[in-house]
Every structure is written in C-alpha cells, then in structure tokens.
Amino acid sequence: IVLRDITQYKRLEKIRTDFVANVSHEFKTPLAAIQGYSETLLDWGLGEPNISRKYVEKIIKQSQQLENLVSDLLQLAKIERLQNIKLIAFDPNPIIMDVINEYSQIARSKNINLTTGLNSDHAQILGDPEMFRSIMANLIDNAIKYTHNGGKVRVYSQINGNHEVFSVEDTGSGIPQKEQGRIFERFYRVDKARSRSIGGTGLGLSIVKNLSELQNAQVWVRSQENEGSCFSVKFRLADLPKMAK
Fold first, then answer.
1. Residues 26, 126 within the same domain
2. Is 243 contained in some domain?
3. Helices 204-214, 49-81: crossing angle, 10 deg rounding
4. How many whole angstroms separate alpha carbon 157 and alpha carbon 174?
5. Which of 88, 39, 31, 86 is nearest to 62 (CA)?
6. Same domain membership, residue 142 and residue 216
7. pTM of this prediction?
8. Which of 34, 67, 176, 238 could covalently link to 124 via disulfide, CB atoms 3.0 to 4.6 Å apart?
9. Domain's final residue, options 57, 81, 105
10. 157, 119 Cβ separation under 8 angstroms
11. Contact 156, 117 (CB under 8 A)
C-alpha cells in the first residue's frame, strides 16, 4: 500500500510539475513578444505613425493571446473541480445554430463555407446546455482556425441508436496518425508555431474532453493528414415521456 501511495504521489507530482512548466512556457512566449515590440516602439517607432500602428497591433494581438490563455486556464480549472452535475433534457439544435451564427462572420472573413446538416427530428439529449454550448463552440472555433482560406467546415448530427452524434468536419491540414492519441491533452499541439500564430491556446480540445466526460458523453477524432479532420461527440438521447392514452 505504501509503495502504491508513493507511486501515485510521484505521478501526481510529475503532472503538477509538467503543468507548471507548460503554463510558464505558454505565458513566456506572448510576454516576450510584447516586451520586444514595446522596446522597438520606444527605440524608433513613436515618431513614425505607420510603424507605431504596426507594432501596437502586434502588441494587442499578443495581449489577446494572453487573455485567451487565462480564460481557458480558468475554465479548465473550474471544470476539473466539478464532479456530479445535473443532466437535463434539452433540444441541442437551437444552441448549435446560435453558436454557428456567432462564428459565421469569422468564417466569412476567411472565405470558409460554414454549413449545417442537423437532425430535424427535434430529439432531446441528456446533458448540460451551457457545457454543450462550450463543446460546440470550441469544436467550431478549432475547425475554422485550422482550415485554410477558401475551405469548408460542416456541422452535422445524426441519430445512432440511443444516442445522437454531433460532428464538426473541416478541410484543414489534418492530424498525423501518430499525433491523434494525444490531441485532447492539455497544451498539446500538432503544429505549435502555427497554433500560436492563429491564437490557439492548446487547451480547447482538453476542455471539450473534460466537458464531455462530465456529461457521460464520448468525443473522438477522425483525421487524414492534408485532407482534414472530423471531431465527433456522442450524447445519450433523453427518454421521451409516454403520451397519455
């Protein structure tokens, strides 16, 4: 028992150490960029409006990256503290359409064709509406981020037995087979440089996985390198009340 406790302690300590190291690294990158741009601005950019604007825009972008990172860290910490949540029956389609409306402008700015193919039976699923919304928002955001200009993102759902499966499919760069097993880990990125350049925090898919597990849902990915990815999450259908005779 003592040996098992020591092994467990060492494992948890390594997780904690790795987490602190990852967080420190994620903060260091945008902070170093902000410092560098600020120093350049002070040295020779203040008297040149065009140069000043260029570097201020870069500083704002890196600041937004920090804000996104802090927001995702706080959300993930909150999620990991949760244990038992109350699952209720709700119609997922209006939530999905609301999220799609929020991201439609971002998709248009990249000339991405964002389409839907939702199940029209108005089936209800068991879950938490806000958590479900966060899952779909993260998956759609991720798909748009990693899809090149002029690409396609499709959001669709289908009934599969006692479950409904929601999928977000894109024509992005795809994920190598050897990377797919780690894609839901905190801070894991397939392409770190590209992820940071487009504002990724490395936490979105980890949030999706944690939120799915809290709702007894399953999430997985199918992907082909250079062809695109499809992230799917499966929720149990709610038992519909029997009609009174």
1. no
2. no
3. 20
4. 21
5. 31
6. yes
7. 0.74
8. 238
9. 81
10. yes
11. yes
